[in-house]
Amino acid sequence: MSVPMAPIITAFERSPDGGKGLARDMRVRWALEEVGQSYEVRLVSFGAMKEPAHRALHPFGQIPTYEEGDLALFESGAIVFHIAERHAGLLPDDANARARAITWMFAALNTVEPPILDLQTTKLLERDKSWYEQRLPVVEDRIRDRLGELSDYLGDADWLDGAFSAGDLMMVAVLLRLKASGMLDEYPKLSAYVARGEARPAYKRAFDAQLAVFTGKSPTG
Amino acid sequence: MSVPMAPIITAFERSPDGGKGLARDMRVRWALEEVGQSYEVRLVSFGAMKEPAHRALHPFGQIPTYEEGDLALFESGAIVFHIAERHAGLLPDDANARARAITWMFAALNTVEPPILDLQTTKLLERDKSWYEQRLPVVEDRIRDRLGELSDYLGDADWLDGAFSAGDLMMVAVLLRLKASGMLDEYPKLSAYVARGEARPAYKRAFDAQLAVFTGKSPTG
């Protein structure tokens, strides 16, 4: 009996976050853990990411990628969606609820993440610029606009639209990028929401697996 | 015989681009035209976008939204994907090709659009700041990195992965936001790619329809 090969994902050999689980492979690991699909990881160095062999998998020279037989994908959103379509557990069965869960995936990636990316890029690449100190609060306020709206929408609900879905997975993963900034604490409903995500056993398994790349320890031992 | 109601989308009553087709309703209009689905448009003022009635449809107080019977969606990516799933013409039948087309939708929205949004935000909100002139080329160079990679990937192909798909629709729509900047002209393969998108009859119908909001003329007369 032939056993289907486990999909292979790529991750940073040395993630810039030092194992805090903020690199985009974490989203894919988390989705795979949620649906109970084992996977293999190929670690890629910063240099190798920009070489033709990796660019053939990812035209923008980034991680993660996803290989499954003949299929090769990139973009964490697309990979998580692919996993969610092929397995039960990350998208509702009801057609309308499914479309709404997918909407939250796109909202996380195209409405909430861009200002957060801007903050990270600013901190990473503009720290030595003359305008850094003045511009930082401008960038942060743009994020606050989004966080306030998201918090108002979420209200006292556990998840964005009924049961936990790929939309929540992506939104929590995006919001986690703000944790070190302290901005999330200004929105107690959102920090509780993120904490609910982090408390999921699948999240913890995925987190331990990405951390093990740094500690060199097996996540289970 | 009951005829299914046409979906209703929202668009700016007065788009900030003055009818250049850069607002995100254009992507939805284009998708609907590609699949031959008629639709209705409800125009929303800037004030009304932030009111509870519209926020019930779009938690971030933006356009477009999409209403179809009991279903209400927001996020242009999610709406275009919903249209592409329900109709033939925007996603390939082959499962792997379909997953790759979806990958390009996410790549357009989460990898290519964020630096372009940063440029637009910079031009719109930071023009009077002391750092504007110095920071602008930094932002533009980040876009050039992505454009160069995308151009290398596209090469001499007409579309990103075989036949025209929702991935191309989204990528062309995102790249069009750069047209006025002249940056697209630095990448002849990409400007030809965008021109192929604009030459599609469905694009032209969608463009004329959004322009008619400004001219007050019916797009067909």
From TrEMBL, chains A, B:
Residues annotated as domain GST C-terminal: 94-221
SUPFAM superfamilies: GST C-terminal domain-like, Thioredoxin-like
InterPro entries registered for this protein in UniProt: Glutathione-S-Trfase_C-like (IPR010987), Glutathione-S-Trfase_C_sf (IPR036282), Glutathione_S-Trfase (IPR040079), Glutathione_S-Trfase_N (IPR004045), Thioredoxin-like_sf (IPR036249)
Pfam families: GST_N (PF02798)
Domain GST N-terminal: 12-91
Recorded superkingdom: Bacteria
Gene3D superfamilies: 1.20.1050.10, Glutaredoxin (3.40.30.10)
Name assigned to this protein: Glutathione S-transferase family protein
UniProt organism field: Paraherbaspirillum soli
